[in-house]
Known about the structure:
Oligomer: heterodimer
Order of helices and strands of chain A: HEEEHEHEHEHHEHEHHHEHHHHEH
Largest interface: A-B, 61 and 57 residues
Number of helices of chain A: 15
Radius of gyration of chain A: 24 Å
Largest sheet of chain A: 6 strands, parallel
Distance between the termini of chain B: 52 Å
Amino acid sequence: MTEATLEKLKILAEAAKYDVSCSSSGTVRRNAGKGVGNTVGGVGICHSFAADGRCIALLKVMLTNYCMYDCAYCINRRSNDIPRATLSVSEVVDITMEFYRRNYIEGLFLSSGVVRNPDYTMERLARIAKDLREVHRFNGYIHLKSIPGASRELVDEAGHYADRMSVNIEIPREQSLKFLAPEKDHKSVYEPMSYIRQGVLQCEEDKKRMRHVPRFVPAGQSTQMIVGASPDTDRDILLTSSALYGMPTMRRVYYSGYVSVNAYDNRLPALKQPPLVRENRLYQADWLMRFYKFKAEEITDESNPNLDLEVDPKLGWALRHPEAFPVDINRAPYEMILRVPGIGVKSATLIVNARRYRHLNSSHLSKIGVAMKRAKYFITCGELTVASIADTSPEYVRRILTERRTKRDNPLQLSFDFT
Amino acid sequence: MIIYRFDGSFDGLLTAVFESFARKEPPDMLLAPDGALPLFYDVLHSVETDEVKARRVWTKLGKSVSAGARTALTAAFLTDNPNFPLLALRFISRAVVSTTSIENDFSDLAVLALVKEARRVRGEAHRLLQFVRFQKAVDGTYFSMVEPIFDVLPFAIKHFADRFSDQPFIIYDRLRDYGYHHDGDEVRRITLKSDGYHLSTGRLSEEMMDPDEPLYQELWRSYVKHIAIAERTNPRKQRADMPVRYWKYLTEMQ
Lengths: 419, 254
């Protein structure tokens, strides 16, 4: 461990920073005996927040940023003239252990450029995970990238040491992917995904018959799509995510607003700023699918394939469906209460519990934490309130709810939470 | 107006509940020892903390609400909200006379306060898990200084003792002047006596640091700097998720 490592870590952190995934949740790993570390499960632990507001839970680093591919959207493409570096297996292991012991990180998120061939690269990733688990008895979180094109045996081996594995789709439609990354196709992405899925399902099957089954990717897999590098619409992206969530073991789909890293390549749009608002709207839509029981087809439709940047997708749905409102807070089922703009999962749960004791009125609701500013147009609770969306018009409600926001701050500078 | 004064302890709160039933007068105010009296009042009763009475209320409460609600009460009690003791007293009083559990009645102010304060206190305990930073000393002990706004170190210590079971460490709460020392086997509560450099700044001095420590700190600082995407700089979000009051002891922010 020397000053040279410092330089390498700089380069390889720069190379890894466009990967979004940072979660350290989804599995529990106990510290049995005198090992090092544990994985707590439940909510993950974010140890720090970088200047861009993104959390640092895992040591997100690349093993090497040399790469044999030339994908247009990627900073590490082989035709880029950037400083390149490679960390040795022992360096990665050492940095991970030392950072972990100082409570800097929850674990390791290791990815790599593809050198020589996919199998060679995958083998080294698996080697690091194996070293950490077996030599250092490390029980922290390990997230490994599965290298597209790696053989099944290596993915199986890596899966026994990793908590989560991921393969990035990057571009939702295959024709756009072919255009930006001619050396790749969707098959090279979906194949390793299916290896991971089959490994997990096999492991679950074995658990029914045998007492001791080694774990296999217990926190499932995740993937990522770049937003704004290709002409794909939000509808394409959300339909792809929805199909992915239908797949067993897929836990998270991340969206990454395209940062114009290779501005010279004219296959890419020239963006002055990454499309942050669009990315935020996509995350909101993703939440609607995962926690609010919305279907991808409801969030966008064919006539409006892109999400409305001015209002969030839930409010957007409500404005397109005035016939569903007002919702009676004291009688409506949980699913309908969840659809009211201004009521989140927490408030909805509190409401359905609390209404068994007494009739709820608007003062109860605001104390519970409902954003009445928005919700009041969409609910009724047996008292005279403002005219609901059913009495007025969606245009009127939309105007009132967007008026102040556009006056106060620039819609391109919303701050948001995507952890 | 009926005013009770108690000693500020959890047992004191439970005793106050007991006495409000015994005296058949629910208080309108429950004052901690340093709470100021209002100008006018009818009754001022001083609650003598009594472990037997407290135990009886606690047991009865266990039959009226779930174990989760009882633990939430102990967590929420650590809050700095001066109105909370009275709300907690009302919660317990209502819970023990009700034939059904009232813990989900979120339109009741006392129940809602319990949920909210428990969430605040547990949030602070979680921030300890996030933002404790160890520095390795020459003798191999890992040292960390913290200043949580509530006294939540006891909630967090189990996590650290399990996670770093093979490494000796000290986590020290500077505001309350106590900490925990884990020697590789067991955890002991300690109070540090000397008034050294590391106690006043939270940082180990050069000669107390392990020889490799500065390098790892530098690695971590430069890592945090380079993992950020310059085009997306968002200091407001950074401060929202990592409150500035923690920065003092964060290696990467120095």
